Amino acid sequence: MTTLGAISRRILRRLVSSLPAILGVVVLTFLLMRVLPGDPAVFFASGPSAGQQEIEDLRRSMGLDKPIPVQLALYLRDVATGNLGKSMTTGQPVVTDMARRLPASLELTFTALFIALLVALPLGIVAALRPGSLVDHAVRFICTLGVCMPTFVSGLLLIYVFYYLLGWAPDPTGRIDIFSASPPDITGFLLVDFAITGDLQGWWAAFTQIILPACTMALFVLAPLARMTRASMLSVLGSDFIRTARSVGLPGSRVTVTYALRNALLPVLTIAGIVFSTMLGANVLVEKVFSWPGVASYTLDALVASDYAPVQGFVLLMAGIFVLVNLIVDILYGIADPRVSIE
Amino acid sequence: MSATLRHAGWVMRGNPVTALAIAGVALLVLVAILAPWITPYDPIASSVAEALRPPSAAHLFGTDQLGRDILSRLIMATRLDLMIAASAVILSFAAGAVIGAFCGYRGGTLDRVVGRVVDVLMAFPLFVLAMAMVAALGNRVENIVIATAIINLPFYIRFARAEVNIRRDAGWVEAARAGGEGHLAIVLRFLLPNVLPAMAVQISLNLGWAILNAAGLSFIGLGVTAPTPEWGIMVAEGARFITAGQWWLVAFPGLALMLTVLCFNLMGDGLRDILDPRMRT
Amino acid sequence: MTELLRIEDLRVAFSTRAGTVDALHGVSLSLEKGQTLGLVGESGSGKSVTAYAITRLLDRAGKITGGRILFRGTDVTRVPERDLRALRGAAMSMIFQNPRAALNPIRSVGDQIADAIRAHRDLSKKEARAQALDLLKAVLIRDPETRLDAYPHELSGGMCQRIMIAMAIACEPDLLIADEPTTGLDVTTQKTVMDLLARITADRGMAMVLITHDLGLAAQYCRDIVVMERGRIVESGETRALFSDPQHPYTRRLIAASPTPRSTVEDLARAAQEAGEVLPPIAATPRPAPEPGTPPLLEVRNLIKDYGAPTRAVDDVSFSIPRGGSLGLVGESGSGKSTLSRLICRLIDKTDGDVIFDGEAIGGIPARDFHRAPQRRDIQIVFQDPNDSLNPRFSAFDSIAHPLRTLEGLRDGATLKARVEEAAQRSGLPPELLTRFPHQLSGGQKARVGIARAIALRPRLLVLDEPTAALDVSVQAIILNLLDRLRREDGMAFLFVSHDLNVVRMMCERVVVLRLGKVVEEGSGHSLFANPQSAYTRELLAAIPHFDPAPVPVQA
After folding, report:
1. Contact between chains at A151 and B216 (C-beta distance less than 8 A)
2. For the segment B158-203, what is each residue's pLDDT rounded down to a tens digit?
3. Domains in chain A and their CATH numbers?
4. A130/C contact by beta carbon, under 8 A
5. Does the predicted model carry a pTM greater than 0.90?
């Protein structure tokens, strides 16, 4: 009971302490908007032929004639009420566009993180248990290569091998090939939705579409995860309390799992949070390579078209997700490590 | 100095990979300097008749959709990519080391605030931040440098801060104060020189990262514009031909990126061994 | 008496970057059931390696290359790795240095003790927990029910060590190996932990091997002693006999070097001489004795340092040191002695009170400007850990030359060279070592560089902050002897900060006892020891391990 109370207090405290971070990002994006080349009023005007008068009216109605602090206040109000402006390319409010595309991005990111953890953790652990062995060298080699490979190159090479050469993967465009029917929109995650409706064929189609981009991204973050797992496992295995556990005759499995692994996973947890946010950034590249209909490719299209409201919305969205992920990591850490709750 | 060289030689003999990586970096720098004189073809001249030729004796790495020689473009691109990465890293290193060292030495509230901000920044999707900055500042190469420098900054601040922090209360720092040295002199003449070797390792590792970032930005169409040869943009241009099986448009610039980053990373790991005085005998 | 453990010609080697290094060259000893044996030696003697070889807990690099370890008749060196588990904890167990790090930080101590029990006994979680509670009671932990669920970071170092003892005795092993179990603990905590350990092993009939660098500790708690030096046993025997009539020169040197309640600086000089220390003849004429009526060199008045913690680090401390005098500052961890020494050196700013040096109030000068004050060169300091007190990028010469350059404005040249060499020579540092960097020097040599740097300016007050705490006892004797000599040569005043009462008594005319930032007692070294006034001082004195090498009739 007290633990639960402590955890909820902790969550609250973390939420409050992350407010400045969010506010900072909001202000930053606002300032970015203001230094952007071009006058937003000109963009929103009816056309190139719009008269000076019309632009002036627009400026007034958009509040651009007011001093910057006032504009900032107005902007903060807009953000607080969920009004991120309209995209000029799609003509839709940015929030609507983002909401429709976010599940695609999240599904990709989660799948990739899942694959990466599934491969990296065992690799790191095995390498640490047998330092200097063949496995260890192999893991280190993979890690060294992994961080050197740009995602956009590895993605394209995967396409070349699995789509062009082997023909195993479907056409690398989008989340589902155009001939398949989309599942009912339940969670927005195709893999989950197909599974819920029991549509195995659809699930397989979605799975084959997601596997290449997910692997591309997983490859990119495999190295830091495996490297960290190995390093932290090695340092824990060399620590005094492992020697103690062995000196009282604990079974090997208990020493490795309960004593070493649990402690070693603490830093991995922190890294996983950072890795997740790196993946959010890498999304931009992977979504472009695989024409993935997520928020990042949407933003990219907007960026190329000098349509800045989506860019701004995207940065805000990333900031929001980032705060959320950090919060989750923090809570998990607080549960896993009793030393944290005291501070 | 000669002791350091001798030690470096000793480390390198036992660790040929580092020697190879350093040779690789040297080669890259040489290629970058000599680029205009060693390209077999004009990297920008297009020739439709020669378009999309696979690798051959005439065009070792093949030609692209406009018939430009890929090898020549790769060579020219080395110059630009290394320039971007090096200037970005130098900028962020210089600023980061000084800010970090002073914060780490001074401690207190300012240090805590800086530390917190840096931690938050580091966990933020930095590529997105760089993207937004280039978009805001304008689509130019200088802005890629600035954006890359800024997203690198937190790493240097944090690193310098941590390194200075663990030495701040060391006996030899207090001894220097008892020996009549002021705070400023201690940071500049005592702490920074001790932190620099570790930072050299960081620089080497970061150069690779900066190259990846800059290439990523130009891949999505930021910074470098079309005819300019640059690895990221070359991959972007070749991307639509991969599904048609024309792999060389992507593979060679991709490989160039990978090998460059690999060299910097391996050199960083090797430098760590060389510069660590504890391992000297 | 039945034999429990017998080690025959044990050899252990470590593979390092530089090749294989032998750590033990044929060690033989034996231990009976219920016997207590002290394994004594300085760093690098191989005492810990011996212990880890017995339990086969040597790290990966270490290999047993020869000899036998017979434990209850079985050769432990030949037991396969998977069968060792049955031995460890159940038949023999260990207690380690640095107890807090020796416990799993993210598992409650109750669970850890229960783990140790369940490793060898088929008990339910509940039964194991009940036994763990009994063990906590046995190691005298107050409020054991709630402590079961505590994590190591919530307990003090002494408490963690008691938890460690509870784990080690959980399955009633026949042999308990304690590897420097009280190093890093305060002397009063050391006493409670050691008393507990002695009582428990005696009550349960366990044999104990106590590994320590502290002769006094071994003498007080062990029936027999084995002295080791560089991987070899040099001497062994019954404790009293060994101390009263040591045979091996190394043992004699070690005993002479260990400070005891009766030893004097002259003993140290003898120990130093035996170790081959040759110092130049006295280099300077002492300063003339101060005329009567001159003010003290240093006066500390109601000094307070408040870091914002619930208790002040230094709380209303006053004392004074006459010209050429020496004052010892004694206290356990948290007593504020290090903070006080830094306040006097003007490395940190006071909260209140004043520091008066040679009649001038210097407490008001901000610490960040003090390097420009004229008194800077008069107050110098020697730091605790020689490994950490030298700039890794400076050669010994540069380290010593640094204060001469900054405070006397000497430029490179013959004068500077002469001054540095003189300081080095007076500190017993051979001139050929001056070009070396810290990592090329031994601990004792680094300590000498630190001293040479401090005395190069010929300060009038030298603050010594635990100058020998990180050194082996034989090196400590040499360094203490050197310091005492330097003081007499130069007429310097000393402020000697230490946790070791014996050392302070030897080195200082007056002693101040600190506790939690406050002065508990002040008096002349002699009277304070002979007739302590405060309960705390008495407790401190009682906690020092007794060690008296004076010849005593050997008991049959």
Report:
1. yes
2. 899 988 988 888 889 999 999 888 899 999 889 988 888 888 888 8
3. 2-80 (no CATH), 100-336 (1.10.3720.10)
4. no
5. no
